[in-house]
Protein 1
Amino acid sequence: MINSNQGWTSMTLRLQTGFDEKGAPQYKDKGYSRVLPSAAQADVYAVGEALAGLTSYDLHHIQLTNREDLTRI
């Protein structure tokens, strides 16, 4: 039997850093680990926007990744 426990969540900001020679947008990802899984999505988004505001790049989107820890019992 397998036991499942929710682990930490991570947040990744996708920032648009400019354009390539063909005019396609270029992106850079900046990751932040150990986001509380219980954090409200609106709060996580607000923090992501605030962090992106500290850069000179435009925020394209925010991605949340939830980790689940599996153990055999």
Protein 2
Amino acid sequence: MVQKSTPVAVCGSLTSDQVRILREHGTERPGSSPLNHEKRPGTYRCAGCGNPLFTANAKYESGSGWPSFFDVLPGAIEERKDDSLGMVRVEVLCANCKGHLGHVFPDGPPPTGLRYCMNGLILDFQPEDSTHSDAI
């Protein structure tokens, strides 16, 4: 019998959809994330562990239906080859808890040319004026 690895400790509690995405490599429906329309300054953190991932300055409207970023905070993510679904992509994982965040594609805007296409359900947005906005 093959067992799934035990998830690492999490900050707070996760919904069943967040567990499906972070731990089972699922995805959310395109266009379903309220974060698609988020425009305030702040930081996007992993909902599984609180690790800072992206700043609002790197967010842009990609038209993909998922929150998209052209850059990531240093050391925040890990990447690995994903050949599921009959295609080769680059999966993006939280460097801290190893949770699935989404994928990165080479079709983003300057200066990086990258599009980090993330599942909004696994992002915890902390507005810049929030009391939770500790140093990154």
